[in-house]
Amino acid sequence: MRIGVIIGRIGGVDGVALETEKWIEVLEKIGHKVFIISGEFENWEMRRPDHYHFNLLSFFSPEAEWEQRKAFFEPTKSPDRLLEHVEKVSELIFHELQKWVNFNNIDCILSENSSALPCHLSMGVGIKKLVEKTGIPIVTHDHDFHWERGERYLSEHPEINQLVDDTFPLLIPHVKHAVINTFGVETFRDRFDIDALLVPNVMDFNQNYAVPNEENELFMRRLGVAKGEIPLLQVTRIVRRKGIETAISLIDKLNDKKLKLMISGNHNDDENNTYYNELVDQIHDLNLTNQVLFAAEKGIKHIELSDFYAQGRACTYFSTYEGFGNAFVEAVLAKKPIFVNDYKPVYSQDIGCHGFKTVMIKDSELTEAAIKDMAEIIYNPALCDEIAAYNFELGKKHFSYEVLEQKLKLLFP
Q: What is the mean pLDDT of the chain?
């Protein structure tokens, strides 16, 4: 089958982009031919001759950013100009997508969250037009939805809210929906009386990953971890729902100068750097400047997460909300113990239920008992290895490429 992937951005570290790359790898392994059209290739090495860069699909295109502002942040008195804009741009997107489909003889579309979350209104409407007018089969990989984001996608204009409800998610009869958690399955059943397929996020458990060596030891030294110090890893982007302030508080409460919290991600998705600046203030207030390090601020352009994980003792993952939680499974793959918040709506229902050994807190509260359990793991490398090996086997059973392959064969027979 010739499958066309539509995505706003690919090649980066956000969950949608990362999971899309895995789907592509497995789809090609089982014999499909995959074509990509994207608004942004963050890792330009991904661009092959059969991959098409179409800037109008980018979340950061002038068209997309303008409509987001006028729809949700700076609405004018009348929505007419905005609605005209969406109609015009979606027509351009529809026609470009149609040409791309015809040129590549594409048999089926895979829409990567573009038909689920309204972060690009015109792209969602353009995809809907493509499917309605051509009848092409489509699978929508739905990671998260507008009603899960509070008032982020609530407009002052009823017409815009109606457009969102009519387009996200895409509720056309021949659409196949794949969701990443049980909550998504329940939502489709309860809201729309539709059976969606649960496809969990996965990792390749057959690779050599996070293996310590001299090179990644030197890498950790460059990041600011001296020999004899103990790095804890926060392998996420810097956005508020990641609960990084709780990890910083943990460093403070453990009160050991040898401990360092290493934060891997950048704050490009933190609007106006508001959350990042709050973290910096917290670090200064607690006098932890030498113990909490931002890897992105060390002048290292590209961080191989495998090298980052290799030298860590354990991972902090105190998110309050996740659509799934790639960083959890990634830490399992890297054979690192995990300290986790019972994040909504996924952790207990889709991950913790499998029996992973973690130190779990609730509502971001670092209790004395939890801190004691974390300390016991941090200062006992043998216990770290025991926990990591146990979790690795569970991860391989429930969140491997083999699991993904079984699911994709159902979606793309």
A: 95
Same domain, 180 and 299: no
Kindly state the tokens that stand for 244. Answer: 């990084």
Tell me: the pLDDT tens digits for 100-157?
Answer: 999 999 999 999 999 999 999 999 999 999 999 999 999 999 999 999 888 999 999 9
Q: Which of 141, 94, 90, 91 is nearest to 116 (CA)?
A: 141
What's the pTM? 0.89
Query: Are 10 and 150 in a shared domain?
Result: yes
- Per-residue b or e along 315-352, where b marks 16 or more CB atoms closer than 10 Å to that residue's CB: bbbbbebbbbbbbbbbbbbbbbbbbbbbbebbbeebbb
Residue 44 has pLDDT above 80, yes or no: no
Residue 367: both structure tokens together: 């209790």
CA distance 179 to 23: 13
CATH value at residue 284: 3.40.50.2000
Q: φ and ψ at 160, to 5 degrees?
A: -70, -40
Instruction: Specify whether the CB–CB gap between 30 and 1 falls below 8 A.
Output: no
Residue type, 226: A
47, pLDDT greater than 90: no
Average pLDDT of span 293-311 = 83
| One domain for residues 75 and 173 | yes
Contact 108/33 with Cβ under 8 angstroms?
no
Examine the domain organization and report whether 82 and 168 are in the same domain. Answer: yes
262: domain range? 214-398
CA-to-CA distance for 208 and 8, rounded, in angstroms? 30
Q: In this structure, are residues 200 and 347 in contact, taking their beta carbons and an 8 Å threshold?
A: no
Q: H or E stretch including 410? A: helix 401-411
Asked if residue 341 belongs to a domain, the reply is yes
